[in-house]
Amino acid sequence: MAAVSSSVRLGGQIWFRGSVQQASRRFSENSDKGWFRSLFVHKVDARKDAHSNLLSKRETSNLYKIQFHNIKPECMEAYNSLEAEVQNRLHQDQDYPCEVVGSWNTWYGEQDQAVHLWRYKGGYPALTECLEKLNNNKEYLEFRKERAKMLISRRNQLLLEFSFWNEPLPRPGPNIYEMRTYQLKPGTMIEWGNHWARAIKYRQENSEAVGGFFSQIGDLYVVHHLWAYESLESREETRNSAWLKEGWDSNVYYTVPLIRSMESRIMIPTKSSPLQ
């Protein structure tokens, strides 16, 4: 069969002087190799080292714990009051090397849920010291018994913060907070970090970037991005404006294939939360 020498449009390009069969074959080969070429669009750090050493703020040695508490609906008010009292006591006691970064109730997402983010200055030694002291604190043990009566379930994770994100610091309100949680494919954390190290600049104009973390213990290959907005309307406007900036679309394009699942929570800070 004779080759057809007419022009053919494939993938947004015009192909000349080749057969339709050749063009189709070349297009298929390019599609098959697309994943391979994408590795070189943004260079991935090839050093052999733990992800925590490559991605975290090693100089600060901060360790974070995030707690998710599912609460009996009728106990929400009492739970918030009791939790605030204990958090305030720990803040005031300098013997405990921990502090609450933020406390929220989920507004949209899983209902009747409280989310707490703690910081341990000094890393794992600070966490160990704090747990040992709390386990010998009779008032705290009584608090845990009382709190347990209000809970349906609870879970936690230990986290490190990405080196290229803002450190979460107290801020005035009122704000709503969005926690976007990504379950990544194993082996993709370095690639994720490299893309977001470039992309975070597109999301800092309105000071909406609060903190970015990745899990160390608990569910692994989990990333939490924490954002602050004045309202749901400002959230929509801020997110839409990012798409007008050259480069943001590339970040989305190259990070979406790294994700296994994702979740968004809209959260309201509790009265005692340093992040308002």
TrEMBL record:
It comes from the Eukaryota. The keyword Transit peptide applies. InterPro entries: Dimeric_a/b-barrel (IPR011008), NIPSNAP (IPR012577), NipSnap_domain (IPR051557). SUPFAM superfamilies: Dimeric alpha+beta barrel. It is found in: Mitochondrion matrix. Protein involved in mitophagy. Accumulates on the mitochondria surface in response to mitochondrial depolarization and acts as a 'eat me' signal by recruiting proteins involved in selective autophagy. Keywords: Autophagy, Mitochondrion, Transit peptide. Belongs to the NipSnap family. Residues 177-274 form the NIPSNAP domain. One of its GO terms (cellular component) is mitochondrial matrix. One of its GO terms (biological process) is mitophagy. This is NIPSNAP domain-containing protein.
